[in-house]
Specification:
The complex is a heterodimer of chains A (about 230) and B (about 400).
Chain A: E1 4-15, E2 18-30, E3 35-40, H1 46-53, E4 61-66, E5 69-70, H2 76-86, E6 87-90, H3 102-112, H4 117-130, H5 146-158, E7 164-168, H6 176-193, E8 196-200, H7 204-207, E9 212-217, E10 220-226
Parallel strand pairs in A: 3-8, 3-9, 6-7, 7-8
Antiparallel strand pairs in A: 1-2, 1-4, 4-5, 9-10
Helix pairs in contact in A: 3-4, 3-5, 4-5, 5-6
Chain B: H1 4-17, H2 19-57, E1 61-66, E2 70-71, E3 74-75, E4 84-85, H3 86-95, E5 99-114, E6 117-126, H4 129-133, E7 138-141, H5 146-151, E8 155-158, H6 160-166, E9 176-179, E10 182-190, E11 205-209, H7 210-217, E12 225-226, E13 228-233, H8 239-253, E14 264-268, H9 269-312, H10 314-322, H11 327-364, H12 372-398, H13 402-407
Parallel strand pairs in B: 6-11, 8-10
Antiparallel strand pairs in B: 1-13, 1-14, 2-3, 4-12, 5-6, 5-9, 5-13, 7-10, 8-11, 9-10
Chain lengths: ~230, ~400
């Protein structure tokens, strides 16, 4: 069974009388442990795909199976529960809570999965250690560099032991050196912890870190290539 | 689902970020709750005072007073002419079945002297029943008896104010005082009663046997003349019946034809006091209602700020939703913030109201009582306001679209 399977998903936005097909009959599968890069121009449907895969949005038609569960017809709270257990997000703009320490930002997902305070703290420290931020637990985002902030965000994404991390332009706000460091962290997590990583990017050199490349254009999946092991 | 301690922690942190704003928002509730507490304290204090005064007057009291008389076609003012007699008082006890005690009173003002001190006070000539009518005990000594009344002995009972003014620390019982230059032996001291409902000092009085007052102190226009008759009914349920019985009995004794005005009037003192108490209760309610309007305004202030806060923190809400917060989590977080604002405001308001009540007591001299009930009421009411006015913003926050919330700048 594939970790992720989409069956002819479409997403149509109605803007007044005009209907915009952001995604048109897209089907693909992603297996556990894959590292996928999604590329495409803006408006190609890559962000819509990410939103649907991330259970932030539901397809207008078609089926999305996550670990065999049909999540395409689920309500808000059921989707929230799926996000809490199965998915971790990394955003271009980091999206950390301001004025809140690194450790508390990392603890955030566990607050909503109902974990005890002591366990939360231990797991958060572990995650910060894993992303190389040991000793900076009590720094707030404004006291951290962009790369460090993104590491906190990655720590937050993996702290609930989610099998999937969705990264939306994770290096878009970072310089090239820091970008490399972040991408190497993703590669490490993928290789050592067998975490499935799905990455949206428009930078071809960032996409080279992945083994599989999906290209979107005008709401269609136009190419899906897997490279051999590097 | 998020646990309660974490929710509380998150809410307090959010309130701390905008300290000034939180404080100003609370101020509405503080003023509202404070006003409710203070107003209820003033009202309760007034009611309590009246209730105490009613109790000090004695319960189930009726008073028979002389009415207007007509003399040669000229109608005299009510109460100007004495029309009641000892015989009336005795007949009441004998015949009015609803009456427990009746005490005739012949009163006047006289100068009293003890040693080098003198004092002017009201002298009441009465019978031993007076103490039963007024529910009045002696703090010292003994009451006078019917024997004293029959013999018109020169004995007296002193009120505490009189004792304070004449005897500087000396035990008055057994001492001799002079009323209108006639020596009287003090045989007892009346317990302190305080103010009457109409503000008179009830302790500024001297009781003497009614016969002594008639024969030695105050002249009478006919034998056995008295001024008023104080009556205690057998119980609250006998008040109306007693009033009717008194009216019928005295009209008959005074030979008043049907259709003619009585030359006396019967007043229900207890009822008069209760009316006063009721009007105070209405006043309390009214003050409380006006004060709760400001509480309502405070609640609207909370709603306003919470709506602003939800808009400001749209992105935060998006982040929380992305990492797994569900509708309930977001709703409780904002509801908890509104509740914290209103409850902290409520507690500060209670403290402020209590201080305010004391200030009113100190400055205006009104008695104020902050009842535990009003504190509980104010606390629950502010909680209710927090939930009521916090619900809509929290509801709005919980229904945000996570994608749009994450994109919000």
């Amino acid at each position: 069974m594939a970790l992720i399977e989409t069956k002819q998903i479409s997403r149509i936005y109605s803007m007044g009388d005009v209907e915009v097909k952001a995604l048109d009959n897209v089907s693909f599968t992603i297996d556990k442990g894959e590292f996928v890069a999604i590329m495409g121009a803006s408006g190609s449907g890559k962000s819509t795909t990410m939103n649907i895969l991330g259970c932030l949005d539901s397809p207008t038609s078609g089926k999305y199976l996550l670990e065999g569960m049909d999540v395409s017809k689920m309500g808000r709270d059921e989707l929230a529960a799926i996000r809490s257990k199965k998915l971790g997000f990394v955003f271009q703009g980091f999206n950390l809570l301001p004025r809140t320490s690194a450790i508390e930002n990392v603890e955030l997902p566990m607050l909503y999965s109902g974990m005890h305070a002591r366990q939360r703290k231990n797991k958060a420290l572990e995650a910060l250690n894993l992303v190389g931020l040991a000793g900076r637990e009590h720094h707030t985002p404004s006291q951290l560099s962009g790369g460090q902030q993104q590491r906190v965000a990655i720590g937050r994404a993996l702290v609930n032991n989610a099998p999937i991390i969705l990264a939306d332009e994770p290096t878009g706000n970072l310089d090239s050196k820091t970008s490399v460091e972040i991408m190497e962290l993703f590669v490490k997590l993928n290789a050592e912890s067998n975490i499935t990583i799905i990455l949206v990017t428009h930078e071809p050199d960032i996409a080279t870190y992945s083994r599989r490349l999906m290209k979107f254009s005008d709401g269609h999946l136009i190419s899906d290539t897997t490279r051999g092991m590097q | 689902m998020i646990d309660l301690p974490s929710t509380v922690k998150i809410s307090f942190r959010a309130l701390k970020v905008n300290k000034m704003r939180s404080l100003l928002t609370m101020l509405g509730i503080i003023i509202g709750v404070g006003a409710v507490i203070a107003m209820l304290a003033v009202g309760t204090g007034a009611r309590q005072q009246i209730a105490e005064q009613i109790a000090s007057m004695g319960s189930n009291l009726l008073i028979v007073m002389p009415g207007s008389t007509t003399s040669g076609g000229v109608r005299m003012g009510s109460g100007t002419q004495p029309t009641l007699s000892m015989a009336d008082s005795e007949a009441i006890i004998r015949e009015a079945t609803s009456v427990a005690y009746a005490a005739p009173v012949l009163s006047g003002i006289a100068q009293i002297i003890y040693g080098g001190e003198n004092w002017s006070t009201g002298i009441q000539g009465t019978t031993p029943s007076m103490l039963n009518v007024r529910d009045w005990n002696l703090s010292e000594g003994r009451p006078f008896t019917m024997e004293d009344v029959r013999n018109a002995t020169k004995v007296c009972l002193l009120g505490q104010t009189v004792v304070d003014n004449l005897f500087g620390g000396i035990d008055p019982v057994g001492q001799s005082i002079r009323i209108k230059n006639i020596p009287f032996t003090v045989i007892g001291i009346l317990e302190e009663k305080g103010q009457s409902p109409n503000g008179q000092d009830q302790d500024d009085t001297i009781y003497v046997p009614v016969t002594t007052a008639q024969k030695k102190l105050f002249g009478t226009s006919f034998p056995g003349m008295i001024r008023i008759i104080m009556i205690k009914a057998k119980g609250p349920e006998y008040m109306d019946q007693a009033e009717t019985q008194l009216d019928e009995l005295l009209r008959q004794r005074h030979h008043i034809q049907p259709g003619r005005d009585s030359d006396f009037s019967v007043r229900n003192l207890t009822q008069m006091m209760q009316t006063a108490e009721q009007s105070t209760a209405v006043m309390t309610l009214l003050l409380g209602a006006i004060a709760s309007v400001s509480l309502l305004v405070g609640g609207i202030g909370i709603m306003n700020i919470m709506l602003v806060s939800v808009t400001e923190r749209t992105r935060e809400i998006g982040i929380r939703m992305a990492v797994g917060a569900n509708t309930w989590d977001i709703r409780t977080q904002f509801l908890m913030e509104a509740l914290a604002l209103s409850l902290i405001g409520g507690v500060l308001g209670i403290a402020g109201g209590m201080t305010g009540a004391q200030a009113i007591s100190a400055m205006a001299g009104w008695p104020t009582i902050v009842s535990p009930m009003s504190i509980l009421l104010a606390f629950c009411f502010s909680a209710l306001i927090g939930v009521f006015f916090g619900f809509y913003p929290a509801y709005k926050a919980s229904l945000l679209d996570p994608i749009e919330a994450l994109r919000y700048e």
